[in-house]
Amino acid sequence: MAMFTPDSLSEELLSEQPAKPVQSSVAAVAQTRIRRNVLRLYVMRYQFLSMICYLIL
After folding, report:
1. Contacts of 4 (CB under 8 A, 6+ apart)
2. Domain boundaries along the sequence of the chain
3. Which of 22, 24, 36, 57 is least crowded, fewest Cβ atoms below 10 Å from its Cβ?
4. Where is this region: Disordered (predicted)?
5. Phi, psi values for residue 31, rounded to 5°
6. DSSP collapsed to 3 states, 1-57
7. What is the pLDDT of residue 1?
8. Residue ranges of the chain with per-residue pLDDT less than 70
9. In this structure, what DSSP letter does residue 9 have?
10. Whether 40 contacts 32, CB under 8 Å
11. Is 29 helix (H, G, I), strand (E, B) or coil?
12. Can you give the pTM of this predicted structure?
């Protein structure tokens, strides 16, 4: 049974995975837009829950 140290395990995982290609600007813009939309949804959810709590109290 082989014992892996954190260093040897991370080196092995890195060697198995191919290098990621550089993201194109279109993909980066799309990713930013998605993150903003997700953040907006979290804010709306917080506001909705705050309103419900206010109405209950």
Report:
1. 12
2. 24-57
3. 57
4. 1-20
5. -65, -40
6. CCCCCHHHHHHHHHHHCCCCCCCCHHHHHHHHHHHHHHHHHHHHHHHHHHHHHHHHC
7. 46
8. 1-23
9. H
10. no
11. helix
12. 0.47
